[in-house]
Each structure stands twice: as C-alpha cells, then as structure tokens.
C-alpha cells in the first residue's frame, strides 16, 4: 500500500493538522515508459506554505485533494522500458509526500551517491544549495571585501549563502534566533559576526556589526528584519529577496516602509526563484561539491523519521526548532 498525504483545505493563517489528511491506496504498477519510485527522503521547505494558498505565486498551487508537493529522493523499484532510468537508480525530483510515486521521469534526475550521501543531495547539493549559489553569486553579485548580511542564517539556504560569501572573501554577518544557532554559525561555519534577533535589539546590533554599512543583504525572513536592514544599506547595495518566512502565516503582509532607502542609495532589490537557473544546476553541483571536498563548505541536515510525523516536522520550519536542512526520512 502507498500512504499519501493529501491537501484538504486552504489555511488562512498557520495551517492546522487537519489541513492535510493521510490516505492509503494500492501501490500503482508502472506502464510502458514509466517508473515506480520508492521514496526515501522528503524535503520540508518554507515554500510549502505558499504552495497551499489559492493566490498566485511563482508555481501553481497544490490542488485540494492532491498529494502534497515536496521534493524527494528515492530509488527506482520498477522501470518499464524507460529511456533514461533503470531499476536501482537513486533519483531526486518532485515525488510529493507519499511512500511511492509513479512517474514518466520528467523533472527527476539521477544523483551520485558516491559524491555525497543522499541527504546532502537534498540540502547543499540540492535545491537549497542551488538557491544559495545562484542567489548570492548571480543576484547578489558579491565581491571580495563586501559586507554581506544573511537572515535565516542557520537555515538550509542561509547557512550555504554565508559560507559561499566567506569563500569569496566577504565579511559575513548572520541573523539567527537562539544561542545554539548563533554558536553554530560563528564557531562551526566561520561567520564574522552573528546577531541573535531573539535576545537583542536588531537595529542596534546591526549598527554595531556593520559599522560601515551593508553591501549585500540575502533575505529569507522579510517583515521587520528586512525593514531594519534597509536602514543600514550602502550605495549600490544589492538586496536578494529569497523568502519571507515571517510573513507566510499573516493575514496582511508587512512590506518595507523604509523602501526609500533604495532610492537614496541607488540600491536594487530583486526577487530570486531557483527554478530560473535549472539549466545551470550541474555547474553549481560541481562547484559546491568541490568546496565540500576541500573542506571550505559544510552541510548540515536535521532529519526526522516517519511519514506520519509530517505535520510536527513541518511545524519546525516556523518554530525555528531546527538547524540546516529539514528532512523527513520515510524509508521503511
């Protein structure tokens, strides 16, 4: 049997557990040119909150009654004359929150488990790593000597953004919540300064950490954090809008009131969606893997076990009770 998580309703604020419901159906049999993949890992991402809204976004909403969208890593258990993949291949793609997925293979790609553990292919060598790589290099256009500030810095994307910026010779300031995360960023990842937004005064702490202003800001949080950073930006600063986790469960979105700072400083604010760089993913994987091999880049995964624990694991995205990439291991 194939256990699946279906979207049952569209929440207005924070999703309740009955936003989704589990169901079981007979595991499907692949037909000509199809694959049956047994899922091993499910990615949990803040973007999931946007995918279950009815409002327009960069990707179609999950339809009511459909399997909840999620990135996955799994193994091909049956293949019927497939032109690209065979039984035993480990594939990454959009398999959804279910134990098995039936597919023609479109949108899936084979991962090299000799290069890294499958979990790393879901984090630093997966979508978070791609987002960080292209977001900070292509949109942020960092240069050696820049002061780079990253919010959500202990998360899957933010932690890689900060490390890439360090590799490129930047001074990096991370914003995170809690002593454990701040210690991880400074002691393990080598950030120059870390601001604990939960225990201090963000405006004063930013001024102290960035006395000469901010050249590049990589935003995963939005709201008050973004608004505060705008007061410290330098001329021709680049602000990368990757996410706004502080706003995803709000009825009314809090936009930046300090946006005139963009005008005064001739700065730019640009949204970044990783799918725009899909053709260049292999380039990023090669470089990120090389940095990992050289010991310049670290990957951290926060793994929880069991598909039935989806909701409580999902909640960790917004409570902050995780460090690095949040993954659900459903291999049985």
Give an overview of the whole structure.
With 332 residues, the protein is of the alpha/beta class. It folds into 2 domains: 151 residues, Quinone Oxidoreductase, Chain A, domain 1 (Alpha-Beta Complex), CATH 3.90.180; 149 residues, NAD(P)-binding Rossmann-like Domain (Rossmann fold), CATH 3.40.50.720. Helices cover 26% and strands 25% of the residues. It contains 10 helices and 15 strands. Strands 3, 4, 5, 6, 7, 14 and 15 form a 7-stranded mixed beta sheet that branches. The protein has a 6-stranded parallel beta sheet with strand order 10-9-8-11-12-13, sandwiched between helices. The mean pLDDT is 96.
The low-confidence runs, each spanning 5 or more residues with pLDDT under 50, are none
Overall mean pLDDT score?
Answer: 96
Question: Which structural class matches the secondary elements?
Answer: alpha/beta
Annotation field: number of helices: 10
The major pleated sheet works out as: 7 strands, mixed
Rg over CA atoms: 20 Å
Specify the overall morphology.
Answer: globular
Using DSSP, what is the number of strands?
Answer: 15
CATH architecture of the largest domain: Alpha-Beta Complex
């Amino acid at each position: 049997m194939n256990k699946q998580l279906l979207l049952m309703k569209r929440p207005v604020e924070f999703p309740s557990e009955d936003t989704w419901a589990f169901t079981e159906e007979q595991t499907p049999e692949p037909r000509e040119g199809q694959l049956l993949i047994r899922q091993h890992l499910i990615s949990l991402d803040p973007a999931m909150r946007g995918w279950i809204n009815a409002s327009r976004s960069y990707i179609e909403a999950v339809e009511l009654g459909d399997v909840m969208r999620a990135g996955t890593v799994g193994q091909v258990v049956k293949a019927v004359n497939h032109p690209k993949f065979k039984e035993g291949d480990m594939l990454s793609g959009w398999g959804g929150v279910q134990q098995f997925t039936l597919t023609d293979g479109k949108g899936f790609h084979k991962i090299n488990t000799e290069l890294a553990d499958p979990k790393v292919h879901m984090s630093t060598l997966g979508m978070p790593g791609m987002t960080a790589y292209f977001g900070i290099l292509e949109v942020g256009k960092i240069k050696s000597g820049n002061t780079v500030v990253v919010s959500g810095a202990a998360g899957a994307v933010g932690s890689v953004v900060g490390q890439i910026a360090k590799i490129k010779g930047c001074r990096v300031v991370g914003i995170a919540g809690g002593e454990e995360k701040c210690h991880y960023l400074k002691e393990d990842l080598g950030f120059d300064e870390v601001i604990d937004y939960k225990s201090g005064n963000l405006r004063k702490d930013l001024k102290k950490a960035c006395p000469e202003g901010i050249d590049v800001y990589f935003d995963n949080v939005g709201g008050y954090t973004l608004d505060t950073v705008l007061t410290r930006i330098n001329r021709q600063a680049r602000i990368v809008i990757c996410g706004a986790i502080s706003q995803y469960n709000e009825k009314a979105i809090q936009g930046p009131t300090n946006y005139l700072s963009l005008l005064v400083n001739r700065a730019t604010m640009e949204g970044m969606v990783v799918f725009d760089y899909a053709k260049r993913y292999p380039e990023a994987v090669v470089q990120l893997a090389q940095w990992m091999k050289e010991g310049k880049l670290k990957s951290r995964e926060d793994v929880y076990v069991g598909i039935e624990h989806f909701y409580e694991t999902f909640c960790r995205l917004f409570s902050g009770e995780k460090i690095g990439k949040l993954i659900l291991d459903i291999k049985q």
